[in-house]
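Researcher: Good morning. I'm working through a list of sequences from a screen, and I'd like to move beyond sequence-only analysis. For each chain I'm collecting a predicted structure so we can compare shapes side by side. This is the next one on the list. No need for commentary yet; just the structure.
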Amino acid sequence: MSHVGFEISSNAIRYIEIVKSPKGLTLGRFGIQELPNPVVFDEHLSSNQDLMLALKKIQKVNKFNFVEISIPEEKAYLFTTEIPTGNDEAIRSHIEFHLEENVPVALADTVFDYHIIKENSKKGTDFASVSVVPRGVIEDYISLFEKCGMTPVSFLIENQAITRSIIALDDMQTYLVVNIGKTKTVLSIVNEQTVQFTSTVNIGGDNFASAIAKENSISKEAAERMIKEKGFVRTENNNDFFLSLINVVSALRDEIQRVYMYWLSHIDKNGKDPTAPFKVLLTGRDSSIIGFREYMALSLKVPVDLANVWVNVFSFDQEIPPIEHLESLNYATVIGLALPKSKY
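Model: Good morning. Structure tokens for this chain:
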């Protein structure tokens, strides 16, 4: 079923369409609709007039039918568990029976799905990743989009959608995905194509700009321009600017380090090889600040790269997308949502 990927962030709505062509997948319609006021995700989105007006504006131009929507990481629960090998019905029954041991929501109030990570034929068990979302959250998104003339066909948690877009289908390595947004950063450990641990940090691009604005008594907009121009590089002429950013960036680095150490401490428990390749992948436009990648690589002592959000759509030999490279880092979530189900 052809569908369009939609993401509602705190300050904007992004959408993208990926269509099949004789040469393979290609980019269809895409865009961003800025919101006049920040979204409060603890409130009912289906009652948010700004959101409805923005979605109706998008729909008036595009006439979309079916959509797949991202669920913010902080609205979902993710856990890994060992389950007896069986058919889908038996597996779901087992997860249902143990669900309330792992999440603070009653079974009747949840929607869940699972993904088999690894099989242990000797023990007759599987290692699975389980995603859980409160039923009220799903119903709220359905109501919002149906009021705006679109039909939701499925949902993905934000970090799962990002994983789909930036990790090649045949890549089974371990990654720590760092998605830097305006107001938050989502950290996800991905192994064998599956999100196995996730955490949200309340540090984002706005915090970078606010630190510079406060230190230099300038507007936030002027601070954002300075960050793009100067980057996170310490030079003789750039020392004061670098020091203005260091506290915020160091706090984010510490959170990334904490998640990395958590994963290392759980490697044996999960049956992973501690010598397996490990890399940090950065997404979100604010992760592309000059010098930021190098600082993280030096601090964490692991390889750090900017993600390629088109890796599962097309190669650049085949097509050059109209979205410029740095801006494309903000489209990782919706690209993962829009990819055809047949790829998975």
